[in-house]
Amino acid sequence: MFIEFGYKSEGATLFNLAYPEIITNYGITIDDSHRYEEIKDALEEWIYTSPHFETTENILSKIENISFLANTGENRFEEKEADLLIRLLANLGYSLIDQNKWDDFNQVVEKIDITSSLGKNSLFQLIEYSIEHCYNLNDSRRANEYLSLLTTYFTKEKTKPIGKIYIANLIYKVTRNVEETFSWIKDVEQTSSFDKDRLGYDDSLDAFLPLIKLNKLLNLCNKGVSITSAIPPVEKGTDEEVLVEFERMLCLTTQILAEGILQRPITNDITKRVYPIIRYYYKEISHRNNYWYKLKQLKGQYFDFLISAVSELDSKNLENLGDYLFSEFIENPKYWSTSIQRKIIKSLLKNGFDSEKARTQLRNLEESMLDNHDVDGRVRACLAHSNVWFILGELEEGEKWLKQAIQESIGVNYRKDYQFSTWIAWLRKINLKDSLNAPIRIK
Fold first, then answer.
1. Element (H, E) at 62
2. Three-class SS of residue 377?
3. How far apart are CA 105 and CA 99, in angstroms?
4. What number of H helices and E strands is found in the chain?
5. Coarse DSSP helix, strand, coil percentages of the chain, rounded to the nearest 5 percent
6. Quick one: which H or E segment has residue 327?
7. Which of 117, 264, 381, 440 is most buried, with most CB under 10 Å away?
8. DSSP structural state of residue 74
9. CA distances (Å), 147 to each of 134, 174, 198, 307, 331, in order?
10. Contact by Cβ (8 Å): 243, 193
11. Which helix (H) or strand (E) holds 260?
C-alpha cells in the first residue's frame, strides 16, 4: 500500500521488518517441515515485493541457493529444492512484469528449467501474462516479441490441445491473423467438463475456459459450429444433461461475444438471443445431481460472462439486456437472490451500463438484503454492497455500508477479525478515491 501511494521509504521499513528469517546473504535454508506451506507462502510474498527494494541479481543469488535440511524431507508435499526455485522464479517474473522491468524479466525467463512439467507450465503462464500485460499497455512491439518467444518454446507439434487454444487466443488478440490463429486450433477437438472434480468448488468459470476460448476463436475465424455439434447430447435422464445444457449456453454466449468483437450487426432483438441463457437456472434439480450444486455456484460468473459479451456489441444492446434482467428480477424473484442481483448490477456497471438505473436497482435490494442470513452472511452482504456503491462513486454510501458491516460483526467470536479486515479494505478503497488525505488515514 505504501508503494502504491508513493511512500517507498515507509514501505522499505515494513519490508525489512517482515523479512523472512530463513533468508540470508548466502541463500535460503528451510528446516521446519511442519510449517512448509506457511514458509512457502511467505517466500512467495517476499519475492514478489523484493524487486521494489533489491536488485534482481541480489534476489537471484539468494533463491539459487535453496536447501532443505535432512529432517524436512517427510512433510513438504514431495516438493524439492528445484520445485521451490521454479515457484519463486515465477513470482519474481510476475513482479517484474508488473513493474515493466523487461531486461530483468528476460533474465528470469532464461533461468526457468523446462525439463519438468512444473517448469513448462510456469514458463507458459509467465510468458502468457507478459503478452497480456504488453497488450493492455498498447505495447504491440513487445507483445509480438514475447508471442514469438512463446511459440519458440511451445511449438504446434509438441503443444497439447489446451496449450494450442491459449496460444491461438494470444495470436488473434495480438496480430488479428485469422489464418495463423486457425492453424493452431484446426485439429483441436471440443472440450467438455464431464469430470465433476474439474469443476472445483469456487465460483469461477475456469474449468470452461478452454471450451469458451476455442468456440470464440472458431467463430472469429468463420469456422463456428452449432451448439449441438460443439456439445453433443447425452442419454436422457442422466446427471450430465444439466451440464450439457450449461455448456451449450456458454457456447451461445460465445457466439454473441464473437459477433461483438467482429462488430457484426445482430439481426434479432438481443432479448430473444439471450432468453434461453437467462432462463437456464429456472430449474428445480434434485440435490443428488452430481453437477447442479457446483453449477449454481457459477451463477454470478455465468451472468458476468453474458454481460461482458453483450457489451462488446454496443451500449444499446447492453441497456436492453440490463432492463430485461431487471424485469426478470421482478417477475421471477425466486430465481434471483439479492446476492446474484448485486453481482449482476456490479457487472453491468463495469461494462458501461447506465449508472442511474443501477443506483435505483441497488437501493431496491437494501430493504431485504440482510434477511435470512447469519452474521457471516450479513457481514459479507454489507461488504459486497459497499463495494458496488464505491464503483458508483458514492463514497458516503460505501462508508455507510462498511460501518454497517462492522456493526453486524460486533461481538462475534469468529477466527476472522471482521472489524480489522473491514477497515483495512475500507482504507484501500477510500484512499484510491481520495488520495490527498491518504497519509493521514494510514497514520
1. helix 56-63
2. helix
3. 10
4. 22, 3
5. 70, 0, 30
6. helix 315-331
7. 381
8. S
9. 10, 8, 29, 29, 49
10. yes
11. helix 240-262
Q: What is the pTM of this model?
A: 0.85
| In the block, residue with C-alpha cell 521451490 | 84
Residue with cell 475456469: 206
**Residue 113 half-sphere exposure toward CB, CA atoms < 13 A:** 11
Residue owning grid cell 484501500: 428
pLDDT digits (tens, 9 = 90+) for 38-84: 888 999 999 999 999 999 999 999 999 998 876 655 545 578 889 99
- Here the cell at position 281 is 437456472
By residue count, the chain amounts to 443
How does pLDDT run across 103-149, given as a tens digit for each residue?
999 999 999 999 999 999 999 999 999 999 999 999 999 999 999 99
The label of the residue with cell 453474458 reads 306
R_g over Cα of the chain: 24
Inter-residue contact 17 to 61 (CB < 8 Å): no
Which H or E element spans position 266? none
> Which cell numbers in the block locate residue 395?
463514497
Where do the structural domains in the chain lie, given as residue ranges? 1-111, 367-443
For residues 143 and 124, what is the distance between their CA atoms, to the nearest angstrom? 14
Residue 158 CB: number of other CB atoms within 10 A?
Answer: 8
Beta strands in 330-430 (DSSP E): none
Sheet holding 23-24, edge to edge: 23-24, 27-30, 66-68
Secondary element (H or E) of residue 323: helix 315-331
C-alpha cell at 325: 434482467
